[in-house]
Each structure stands twice: as structure tokens, then as C-alpha cells.
Amino acid sequence: MVGVSDVQSSAQAPAAARTPVGRPVLSLALASMMDEVHAHSGAVYLLAPDQPVLEMAVMAGLPRAFAAPWERVGLSAPIPVADAARERRLVWVGGEEEMARRYPRIAVVLPYPFALASVPIATESTVYGAVFVTWPGAHPPDLSEHEREHLTAACSRLAVRLERAAAQSISPQPETDLVAAPLVGGMAGTLGAVESARMVSRLPYGLVSLDLHGRIGFVNAAAAELLNVPVSRLLGTQLWASVPWLNDPVYEDRYRAALLSQHTTSFVALRPPGEWLSFRLYPSTTGLSVRITRSRAVSEMNRAVPPPDGAPSRLVTISQVLNLAGALTEAVGVQDVVQLVADEIAPAVGSQALVMLGSRANRLRVLGHRGYRDAHVVERFDGLPLTEPTPGTQVLRTGVPAFFETRDQLERLYPARAGTRDGFEAWAYLPLIAQGRPVGTCVLAYAEPHHFPTEERAVMTSLAGLIAQALERALLYDAKHRLAHGLQEALLPHSLPALPGIEAAGRYMPATQGMDIGGDFYDLVGTTERTAAAVIGDVQGHNVTAAGLMGQVRTAVRAYTAVGQAPEEVMRSTNRLLLDLGAELFASCLYLRLDPAHGRAVMSRAGHPPPLLLRPDGRVRVLDLAGGPLLGIDASAVYPATEVALPPGSLLVLYTDGLVESPGTDFEESLAELCRRLADAGEQPLDELADGLIRRQGHRLDGEERLDDIAVLLLRAVG
């Protein structure tokens, strides 16, 4: 597994210190790789310096627009290249159905039959990026041994070259994508070519040649007549750009489907006012040949108008919208939504900054922002009454979008904004409406004056609907999250008491699944001037019910301690309490009485992992105490007590099973590793030691799930 530390410690030097490589290393490596395995398209991604982000460096075989939503992706993103780089393994997706099952966000944008392999670019010590290559849908469902070996070997060789270059502070310079050049510029001046053109011109049906970008390189007279557009206006343009009634996402989709799957595709389109034409697309690795004929009328098609000049191409916009819809379903908290809009929506509409606004108690709340150099310019609006005359409050109250193409337009309607100089000159205020009510406002800012035509306003308003649904879920999640954490903090001790002869430190870390709340607990309380009691336990579950029962158990243990019960009696009483409550949850527990003045501790255990004792001589001992079953199972259970010597300088380590248990690991090996770590670091201050134990490798790397809570209580006897 590759962690973020691998990314950040990559041998890539800062950009200012690097010198470029003269040859197109990445392009040549990718072309050779694709040629050997007969792949149709591919791309090389490199890890960005000091960020867990993969950036597309070069693409071959298809226009980059096909992969526009994934030109820059996080290392934890659920896509094949990220999986390959993060997990240092070859990822194979054998077809359309497997892609839909494993990578639904890609399948939504590219729902075509094709196979894909992604391979890490890595040496033994460093990951530099990953490669993906694709084959048409006719590829066998399994990757052949030859293809697997060649791709792996080629990526290993590329990784070695990058490693050597990085050692010399050299990095690849930007390289041109390997896409076939357009055919515009005339036919070759040979007699055969001229005669071929004459032959084609005499055919009764239309023929058009498109390059990989969809640009027309050749068109015969019959095609121009059928399309009702002169040849001179067609050459060098995209078919859907030159023929207004073909400017439709459905027709672009057929072009993309043909290129990616390398299968013949077709569609019919209505040429105004009432004639239907049939288009058949024959793809190859260099482009497409299109045959156009007259067709009988088919079911009615009513499509949208073309985008205005200068607007993003609909091909890219649709891909980004579909990708955004999938990404927003994965957003958890409000900041996730803000980041996704900044990464996906703002670049698609040309915006340079954004603010997400909400409301609470009839006041404006700034939920998040990106792109502002001075955060105070935005955050000064936080807490503003909703009755204040500002565009943000107005849109939030009314649910009506507002577009300001220049600063003068904004200040004419809202003179108070004249004193706010944020460095932007145009704004789109989009109401976020979910379940029929406004939940927030998304403000998109532009560095220059910006014209918002009707079509663009409609698209942005529709996108706001997607954002609103995600924001509503995120606000609810954050509210539950705050409630859960407030409950957890109320049930656990805010601090541990200072007791004579004892140093103590405690830590709790919730599981990352569920509500980030659980049933692990610990406590320390003085019983007399010279003695103390400590407890650590784990109530089954990671939810509010478990946390509530944990609070009851902790309170009961304190009560039984206060009345002077011995350790074994405390455990029996707590066991009976759980059974009387009828909670149907079990709990493990370890309870002990500490007497540092006499160098001893008396312990009783109920199904809990054994404590560790670090002796003054540096040796670590696992205290395999006698004990009883989990609390809450058997009313007649007994919990024998065991006395342990605790000389000055000794350190007791109490913990819950989340510290030593995880899927795929052996408990004894994990316990042995914990003992080794304790022996190496046992002389550290207790706070540092506690932090180190719960953050050890494997328990919370960025982007990694933690399946169980962790609680740790450290007790050191001092002379």
C-alpha cells in the first residue's frame, strides 16, 4: 500500500530547481507500450509534487476531452489509475459491465464497450504515477499473460528512467498528446489520390472523413448537399459545430462511442424542416469515415441548441456534469461539497472562486470558500442578518438566481458592495433549493466581466439543483456528527486527575465508519489519599446506543468504586447491571486498584485484552490475568482478581482491541509488535507515547478506513 508519505517524499525536486528532459520520454514510452499490446488509447499520469494528486501528463489515441473529468485526480479517487498507483498493482477492467460494477462514476460518463488496464509507475521505494491503456470492446474478457508482462515491464522501465532523472533534478517537460493530426490542407498531389477524389464525388450518397477530434478532413459534394452546408464551411470544423441541427449531445455520444469501442455506430437526425438523414460511422485508430444517406422518418427528436461561441464544448460539459453527479453522491460533509464544486463546477463554467452560503437562526453563514486571496473579504459576511440588502441574503431568501456581468451592475443594485474589493468583476448567485426550500447559495466569481447567456444560466441553475441535494445531506451529516461528538466528549473524562505516585495519559479515537462514535471508554479516580482505581472497557457497537450504554457502565463503575467494592465485586455488580438494563449489548472491561506506595496493583478482567507492563529494566510483559466472560452474558459469572507487582518506574498499558486487531492481521503478531514499540519508546513522556501508540502505521493513514474504536490508558508508577 502506498501512503501519502510516499507521495510527499518522492524524489521530485521543486519546479524551479528542475531542468527539462530533451526527448519526449513519456510519449515514446506510452506509444511503445500501446503498440506492443495493440492497445487503442492510453495515458500517463504523474504524481504532483508534494500532493497526493495524479495529473495527466500525456494521452494517446483519443482526444484528451474523453478523459476531461479525470485530468487531475486525488490518489484516493475511486478510479483505476488511482487504485493502481495507491495499491501498487495492475488493475484490469474486462468490459462495460465490469466497469459499471467496479467504477460506476467512469461508466456513467463513458458507457461504451471497452477494456482497460492500469499499471503503476513505481520502483521499490517510490511511486511516480500510473498508466492506463484501453482496447476496443472486442478484446477478450481476460488480460493475456503477454499483455500483463509487457505492461508491467514497460512501466517498471519508465519508473527507473524517472528515478534517474529525479536524482539529477530533471523532470519531463510538457509533451504533446499523441493524437492523429487533422487532414485539412488538401489531398496528396498524386494521380491516384486525385482519381480517388473524383470517384468519391460521383457517389450518390455522402461521405465525410473525421479525425480523432471530430474535425472534417474531406467531404464530397453529395454530403455537402445533404447537410445543406457548402464544402468550404465544413472543412476543418467539427460536424456538430458546422451543422446547427447536428449540435446535439446524442450525436456527439455516437462519435465518442465509435472511437472508444471501435465498433460501427449509427444514428438518424432530422434536417429541418422535415427530412430525416441516416449517419453511419466507421471508426479506425486514425479517425472515422461517415456515410450519409436519406432515411425514412423515425421517432421525433427534439434537441437543444448549440452553445455560444467561447463556451466550453458540450462534450466536456456533459462529461463533467455526469462525473459531478457521481462525485456528489460520495460527498459526506459540507467541506466535501465545497471542494467538489471548486474542483468540478467552477473550472467547467470558467469561474475562478466560489463561496457556499447557508443560514442559521436568521443569519447568513459562510459554509466554505475557495479562490479568495484574503479570506476576511468573504468571512466578514458570516453572521449577517438575512434582512440585510446583499445579493447573498436576497438569493437565499427568495430562491431566485442573480447574475451580475460587471461590477457596475452589482454596485448599482447593492451600493453597499462598493466598498468590498475582492478582486473579481462578475458573479453568479445560484440558489440551492432542496425539497422545495432554499438550503444555501452558491456564489461563483469571475476575475473579468462575464456574459451569462440564457443557455449558460439554465445549465448553472440545473447544476445548482445537484449541489443543493448534496449540501442538504452534508448539513444533516455535519449536525449529526457534532451531536455524536458532543455526546462522546460528555461521556469520556475531559482530563485525568493528578494523583500521588501516578502519572497518567489517556486517548480515544473513534472508528471511521458509522457516526465516528463508539463504546470504548476509560477512567481514573482517586479512592484514598494513597490509592486509585482505573478502568478501561469496550461496549459492543459504534453508535449512539453503544455510547449511551458506555456512559452508564462508566458511571456504575465509579459508583461501585465509591462504596469501596473490591475489583472482583465491581465487575460482578457491573455485569448484573448490564443484564438488568436489558440492552442486549455486551462489554469487555478491565478494572484495577492501584497502590503505588506499596508497589502493587490488583486487577480483574472480563473478556478484555491483557494489559502490558513495562518494567523499570525495559522489559515488557503481557499480563495474562485470570478473568471471566464478557459483561452482560451470564448473571452467575465470577471475575477473579490478580495482584501484580508495580515498582516505581513501571508502566501499565491498558487498551481496547481496536489497537491490536484489524482485518487480515494476526492478534499475537500485533500484540508482539505493540510490545516492541513499547520497549523502544517506553521512556518517552506519556502524552507523546500515547499519541504514538494510537497513530501507529495501519490505524489511520489518509483515506484509510478504521473499523474499530481505539482507547488507551497509560499509568506510570513514580517514586
Write the SSE topology:
Blueprint lengths: L3 H5 L10 E2 L4 H13 L3 E7 L5 E8 L11 E3 L5 H8 L3 E3 L2 H7 L1 H6 L4 E9 L4 E10 L8 H23 L2 E2 L19 H11 L4 E5 L5 E4 L1 H7 L3 H4 L4 H4 L6 H13 L3 E7 L3 E10 L2 E9 L18 H15 L5 H15 L4 E8 L2 E8 L4 H5 L11 H8 L3 E3 L2 H7 L12 E9 L2 E10 L7 H38 L10 E8 L10 E7 L5 E8 L4 H19 L4 H15 L5 E9 L4 E7 L5 E3 L5 E3 L4 E2 L12 E5 L5 E5 L11 H15 L4 H9 L15 E8 L2
Parallel strand pairs: 1-8, 23-26
Antiparallel strand pairs: 2-3, 2-7, 3-4, 5-6, 6-7, 9-10, 9-13, 11-12, 12-13, 14-15, 14-18, 16-17, 17-18, 19-29, 20-21, 21-22, 22-23, 23-27, 24-25, 24-28, 28-29
Helix pairs in contact: 2-6, 12-13, 12-17, 13-17, 17-18, 18-19
Compute the separation of the termini in Å: 45 Å
Biggest β-sheet description: 6 strands, antiparallel
Low-confidence spans: 1-22, 181-191, 297-316, 697-704
Q: What count of helical segments does DSSP give?
A: 21
Estimate what percentage of residues fall within beta strands.
25-35%
